[in-house]
Specification:
six-stranded antiparallel barrel; two-stranded antiparallel ribbon; conserved putative lor/sdh protein from methanococcus maripaludis s2 fold; 5 helices; alpha+beta; 317 residues
Length: 317
């Protein structure tokens, strides 16, 4: 009986030793090594809490939200013969518009004068010098007018549309990312929520797409028109505009993959047991996806869950 008891103890001890050998997941195996000033994180055994996805190009459908400002209110003048009143949100724009109207009148006056001088010259009632002076006057007036038209176009306004503006509406200006421009069209509706009227949704439509892309921000000015019932909306008010878009052939990552540090965006790219911090240039977020303009390629494996933990390791937070 005593030998049987000792035999059982021996079997139990061997079983414990075997169990210890099976448990190979030691904590130090998952302790990462941080190298290259935080740009590389190395795991002896990869931690499955950091989920990853393979990047590809695809269509993205969802809401794209952009900030906007009411840049002008269109008002009816008190006298019918007067030009439509456009009240801009900035004093320099109001001055530019007044100067633009003056330049139009100047050009018309000089053109009419040139026609009279040409007629007089044809009947030998004006000299060649007078004709050249009249022609120079028209050229100068046209140059002055073109310069002001160019300034308006840089700001997202078509000067010819300024002349045709109808009272009772407002114009909003929104800076929209280059990556979604192919999905925007003149006449397309959008939803607007104003800071002054939280929780209320208003409908506007795209009135014009700008002509100049900002090289620094890669955005284009999009002008939105909306009826100003009761005059409740004022120039200078802030808003958020929501466009419902379907963007084709976009390189995207989940919003959970992108981290921001000191104004720069990063993702973490997985390569075996190594994770590399990569600087990326992102453009716009549509739904839960962010379009990446620079820094990633199709086929890259990107961390989609756990990026915030890696941010702490990478930057020492």
């Amino acid at each position: 009986m005593r030998y049987y008891f000792l035999y059982c103890l021996l079997i139990l001890a061997l079983s414990c030793q075997k169990a210890e050998k099976v448990d190979v997941q030691k904590p130090e195996d998952f302790k990462p090594e941080v190298a290259d000033n935080g740009e590389t994180i190395i795991f002896k055994k990869y931690n499955e809490r950091f989920k990853s996805i393979v990047i590809s190009k695809n269509s993205v459908m969802g809401n794209y939200v952009a900030p906007a400002t009411i840049v002008a209110s269109i008002l009816k003048p008190s006298r019918a013969e007067a030009s439509t009143i456009i009240l801009f949100d900035k004093e320099e724009l109001n001055l530019l518009y007044t100067s633009y109207l003056s330049s139009i009148a100047h050009y018309k006056k000089d053109t009419d004068y040139l026609q009279r001088v040409q007629d007089m010259y044809a009947h030998q009632a004006a000299t060649g010098v007078e004709l050249r002076e009249a022609e120079t006057g028209v050229t100068d007036a046209a140059t002055e007018l073109a310069e002001k038209e160019g300034r308006f176009r840089m700001l997202g306004f078509d000067p010819s549309e300024l002349n045709r503006a109808k009272p009772g509406v407002i114009w909003l200006m929104s800076d929209v990312s280059e990556s979604v421009l192919n999905s925007l069209n003149k006449g397309q509706n959008c939803s607007i929520e104003f800071t002054s009227y939280p929780g209320q949704e208003f409908i506007g439509r795209i009135d014009a797409l700008g002509e100049v892309l900002d090289p620094a921000t890669r955005t284009l000015k999009v002008r939105i028109i909306m009826t100003n019932n009761g005059g409740k909306f004022k120039s200078g008010m802030f808003a958020r505009v929501r466009f419902n878009l379907d963007v084709k052939n976009a390189l995207t990552v989940p919003a959970t993959s992108v981290i921001s540090v000191q104004g720069k965006n990063y993702i973490f790219k997985k390569n075996g047991n190594k994770i590399h911090r990569i600087s990326v240039v992102t453009e716009s977020q549509i739904g839960d996806q962010i379009i990446v303009f620079k820094g990633l390629s199709v086929g890259d494996s990107v961390i989609s869950e756990g990026a915030m933990l890696l941010k702490g390791l990478s930057f020492g937070y």
